[in-house]
Amino acid sequence: MHWIFAFGILASLLVVFVISYKSRPSQGPNRFGKTASPVSFTTAVRRFFTGYFNFTGRASRTEFWYAMLFYVLLLLMLGLLNLSDLVLSILLAFTLIPFHSVAARRLHDTNRSGWYQLVSWFMPVGTIIALFWCNEEPYD
């Protein structure tokens, strides 16, 4: 039964890869737009939710780290509320897409593809590498 689940994930990743390969940005410097400027905490949280499916453009370091701070505080608050597993799963699923979109935009600011965030799935080394990438200076 688990192999069906694994096969479904691999098949969906292959479909996403093929679709993104056809619409990939041009190569070279500034291929993701101009460098993002720093933002405040409230602006970062607002962009976290308004840029729900925005996987293009760039996110500054402050936007990314403020969004991650908000995400961690949200998870801590949800953990303290003792909500049912179904409610927690729905809330986490609701915030998973903006989490990945802001991470992709942050990697774009370092002139990397958003697909590089898949490296973080290979714990602990991949997560450490992804954290270093997200903390780098903007690169054109």
Automatic annotation (TrEMBL):
Secretion signal span: none
Bilayer-spanning residue ranges: 64-81, 86-103, 115-134
Keywords noted in UniProt: Membrane, Transmembrane, Transmembrane helix
Cellular component aspect of the GO annotation: plasma membrane
Pfam families: DUF805
Coiled coil: none
Entries under InterPro entries matching the protein: DUF805
Name of the molecule in the record: DUF805 domain-containing protein
